[in-house]
UniProtKB/TrEMBL annotation, chain A:
Ranges of biased composition (kind: Polar residues): 240-263
This protein's GO CC annotations: RNA polymerase I complex
RPA43 OB domain boundaries: 100-151
Lineage: Eukaryota, Metazoa, Ecdysozoa, Arthropoda, Hexapoda
Keyword match DNA-binding: no
Primary location group: nucleus
Highest taxon, organism lineage: Eukaryota
Basic and acidic residues composition-biased segments: 264-276
GO biological process, one term: transcription elongation by RNA polymerase I
Region Disordered, residue ranges: 210-229, 240-307
Identification of the protein by name: RPA43 OB domain-containing protein
One Pfam family here: RPA43_OB
Localisation per UniProt entry: Nucleus
From TrEMBL, chain B:
A molecular function GO annotation: RNA polymerase I general transcription initiation factor activity
Protein's UniProt name: RNA polymerase I-specific transcription initiation factor RRN3
Organism annotation: Spodoptera exigua
GO biological process: transcription initiation at RNA polymerase I promoter
Transmembrane segments: none
Length: 307, 558
């Protein structure tokens, strides 16, 4: 179970109280089958088993499990049935289940807009698609003046939760979206297709080459920005620089700033003992300390190489 | 090679056919909206003829730029129609070569893929699978870092994967699943495996939440390589002829480069990733018996990060002593933990002496309390299985004393410490740990302790020898020492400086570290191989140095 689909209990409570969220809280007692090796740490293995189910459709719940709380194992002794190796335990917990149904109305955030459909994210994880109706005469569609990031209400039309990913198709509620003055702004969408999405769990800077080394060196803010800009503007056609050269260019920029400490830094670049490092560090003004620390890391590398 | 007229005719035929195919490819031209028409027709009117033809054409002919643009523009405009029944078409379209094309077309492909997966989530597995398989392309191994063109291409793939995961958070599980499923076979070659691991590490950088799972997958794969190398080496000594050597060398080269990639990863990300590595080590590496190389990642980690070192050593000790939460744990795991602990304390340069002393002390204390506990119970049976953990920890103590003699018998103070461990009681106790101790450890331990007048074990050793003469079964010793010198040349350059070589106390004045001798060995590589005559090999194999556990870098290349 990845951390991306992790829900806060409080957040879920709020959603469960909301009638329109399709999330329900339910106390369920169910039978879990454990492998014999799980008995070493019963509680932990039951947790793992339930964690594994999170984000997947479960027949027993008739919905997608989001989270659970108040886990209780009802028996002290497990049962073995029909010569099976599995050991069965009765387990009770409060489960939060996402149970959408055709005809339900949900609210979600638009996170993908194209000329043919809208992609909507419900409860942070579930993707819903609202296709543009193709049969309708005319070129008007209420969906086309919805912006990315906007919240919309829709009705579920088609539902398939059995696949690897749930498939939900929706239909826009006409009343909820007011028709703007200019019915169509497709052109605009076409023009800015590469707008990057801001999500906390994906770091798009690092999908580019070369960024890895800068991160490894732990550059201070100002310089790292400059560097990435440089590289981005160069459209990645810069020659690959070995870690050594990256460090060099970085040192130069730092030295340029710190001025008086320049000579010392150059010295330390060659190789210094641990003691010298700390001495110098104390001499530096506090504001520069961070930069210096960041620079020490590459030096350590050098030291190892020298050995 | 033009032999018979028949073959000439055949080759002529072949050429004609090829030319015709090339011509057809040249002539293949989609008109604008043609593809869209076909698709719409198929969905609305159930007219599958042209659709199937289109699929066939797309599968067999490489597209030129114009056709590529038309196909993707049209597919883009009718993305909504590409439902489940069009899976075949989706598969074919996603498989069209796109990485080598211009920026604009790559952008088009990206847009199509993003639209497709958001409109139809059930196509996501196919699309992801196609993207991940692209990491397994052919290519040439690289030295320092991959060529920039390749990096550029890969970054396009990563960009798409990143966007898909950003828009559809639930795909992260799916992605992980596909990554593990698509992992190349361990014998598939060095480049393929290295490139794949390189890209997995890249993925872990922009999807930090997958870090641990990716690390687990990578380490798992490397362990399977490692185990196979070890298996092979075992087999080598038994067979008379050296067969399929190339294939095996390939695996060790592969492992070498994979180790290099992971070491670079550790060096880049440091603290967070090192903690992850420790967790993975505890879960995956520790239960594996008999591997030779992967554990050196841990040695690297603990030499760089003191917190990790303390964490790992503490964990190993709790497992070896059977003190973790639920029950004492499996005997094999405890034995492995003991040998890892002894190996790390002995071989790692950066482990401070205070740690060595601390763990020697706690091991000895544990053993003494074990002896006291068993004395009170029934007469000590010589069931080595029941007391396996005790034996393993005793061996760890003997090994450490024999290996670290330079330090432990350096001055009076240290000798006093060794005496305070009360080793004679361990040696002479009824459980007789020396009986199961590997002979080379016994030999080194007894000679060093005798010379410093700490323990006299000769009597016990001889008594044990007499017992083994009586019994018919051949005694099997546990001869696996996880941190015997590392012998992969490329990643070794990073690892060797962190290891200590064993120094026999009888040989004096040999001040060489493992690193320098290894380096020298590599430099004079060719000459060395020529010079090593059979008699020399025999001579060196008779000396102490070659025995496992005390193996020095001198003899691993033989």
């Amino acid at each position: 179970m990845s951390t991306i689909i992790k829900f806060d209990i409080k957040e879920l409570k709020k959603l469960a109280n909301d009638k329109n969220s399709c999330i329900i809280e339910k106390k369920v007692t169910q039978n879990l089958a454990l492998q014999p090796w799980c008995l070493g740490n019963l509680k932990e293995s039951i947790k793992n088993l339930l964690d594994y189910k999170i984000g997947k459709f479960d027949k027993e719940f008739n919905g997608i499990l989001l989270s659970y709380k108040n886990l209780r194992i009802l028996q002290n002794v497990g049962t073995i049935r029909n010569d099976n190796a599995d050991i069965h335990f009765q387990v009770q917990a409060d489960y939060f289940i996402f149970r959408p149904f055709v005809g339900a109305t949900l609210t979600g955030v638009v996170n993908k807009k194209s000329t043919t459909h809208l992609g909507i994210l419900v409860h942070r994880v579930f993707n819903v698609v609202i296709p543009r109706p193709t049969e309708e005469p005319g070129n008007m569609w209420v969906g086309s003046n919805i912006q990315e990031g906007q919240e919309v209400k829709f009705r579920i039309v088609v539902l398939d939760l059995f696949g690897a990913l749930p498939y939900i198709r929706g239909q826009l509620d006409d009343r909820c979206v007011k028709l703007g003055p200019d019915g169509d702004d497709d052109e605009e969408v076409e023009k800015k297709p590469t707008s990057t999405i801001n999500v906390s769990y994906v770091d798009f800077d690092k999908t580019k080459p070369y960024s890895q080394k800068q991160i490894g060196d732990g550059l201070p803010h100002s310089t790292s920005k400059n560097n990435t800009k440089l590289i981005n503007s160069g459209k990645m056609q810069l020659k690959i620089s070995s870690p050594g050269t990256v460090n060099e260019s970085f040192n130069q920029s730092v030295n340029g700033k710190s001025g008086s400490t320049k000579a010392k830094n150059v010295e330390s670049e060659i190789s210094v003992t641990e003691k010298n490092k700390t001495k110098r560090q104390s001499k530096l003004i506090e504001s520069e300390q961070k930069q210096f620390e960041a620079q020490l890391k590459p030096n350590k590398k050098h030291k190892r190489d020298v050995q | 090679m033009s032999g018979t007229p028949k073959s000439v005719a055949a080759s002529l035929m072949q050429k004609t056919l090829e030319r015709q195919a090339a011509l057809a490819r040249m002539r293949l031209r989609f008109t604008k909206n043609q593809v869209e028409q076909i698709l719409v027709n198929c969905v609305r009117n159930n007219n599958t003829g042209p659709y199937l033809e289109l699929v066939k054409v797309l599968r067999e002919y490489p597209l030129n730029e114009d056709n590529f643009r038309i196909v993707f523009d049209d597919s883009l405009s009718c993305v909504v129609l590409l439902g489940r029944e069009m899976t075949q078409y989706v598969d074919v379209v996603c498989n069209i070569e796109w990485l080598d094309r211009s920026e604009e077309l790559v952008e088009l492909y990206r847009k199509f893929v993003l639209n497709l997966v958001t409109a139809h989530t059930y196509h996501c597995p196919i699309v992801m699978m196609r993207l991940v398989t692209l990491f397994k392309g052919d290519g040439e191994n690289w030295e320092d870092s991959p060529p920039s063109e390749l990096l550029n291409k890969w970054s396009h793939i990563h960009d798409i994967i990143g966007h898909i995961v950003a828009i559809m958070p639930m795909t992260s599980d799916l992605l992980m699943h596909i990554i593990i499923e698509q992992f190349p076979y361990y014998k598939a070659g060095c480049y393929v495996n290295r490139a794949y691991i390189y890209n997995l590490i890249w993925i872990s950088k922009y999807l930090p939440s997958l870090q641990e799972q990716i690390m687990t997958a990578v380490i798992n794969k490397m362990i399977s390589m490692d185990v196979n190398i070890a298996e092979y080496e075992k087999g080598k000594s038994e067979t008379m002829f050296e067969m399929d050597i190339d294939c095996q060398d390939e695996v060790s080269v592969t492992l070498d480069y994979c180790m290099l990639e992971v070491l670079k990863w550790l060096e880049d990300e440091r603290d967070p990733i090192m903690n992850v590595l420790c967790t993975v080590f505890e879960r995956v590496v520790l239960p594996t018996y008999g591997i030779r190389h992967v554990q050196f990642l841990l040695l690297y980690t603990i030499s760089i990060n003191q917190q990790c070192a303390d964490r790992v050593l503490e964990h190993l000790w709790t497992i070896a002593a059977g003190r973790q939460g639920m029950g004492p744990g499996a005997l094999t795991t405890r034995k492995t933990a003991a040998s890892h602990l002894a190996g790390l304390l002995a071989r790692c340069v950066r482990v401070p002496n205070t740690r060595l002393i601390k763990y020697l002390k706690s091991m000895a204390e544990w053993c003494h309390s074990y002896i006291s506990a068993t004395q009170e119970s029934t007469a000590a049976c010589d069931n080595t299985k029941a007391h396996g953990a005790f034996h393993a920890i005793c061996h760890a103590i003997f090994y450490l004393v024999a290996f670290k003699h330079h330090l432990l018998f350096m001055n009076k103070e240290n000798v006093n410490f060794v005496e305070s461990l009360n080793l004679p009681r361990l040696v002479t106790c009824a459980l007789n740990p020396l009986r199961t101790c590997p002979p080379q450890v016994t030999r080194a331990f007894s000679s060093i302790t005798r010379s410093h007048q700490v323990v006299y074990c000769q009597g016990i050793i001889e008594k044990n020898a007499r017992h083994t003469l009586q019994s018919t079964a051949v005694q099997q010793y546990d001869e696996w020492f996880p941190y015997d010198p590392y012998n992969l040349p490329i990643s070794g350059k990073i690892i060797w400086p962190l290891c200590i070589d064993y120094k026999d106390w009888l040989k004096e004045g040999d001040d060489e570290t493992q690193y320098s001798s290894m380096k020298r060995k590599l430099e004079e590589d060719d000459d060395y191989l020529v010079m090593a005559s059979p008699t020399q090999r025999l001579a060196s194999s008779l000396s102490h140095g070659i025995s496992p556990g005390f193996r020095t870098s001198e003899n691993i290349f033989i």
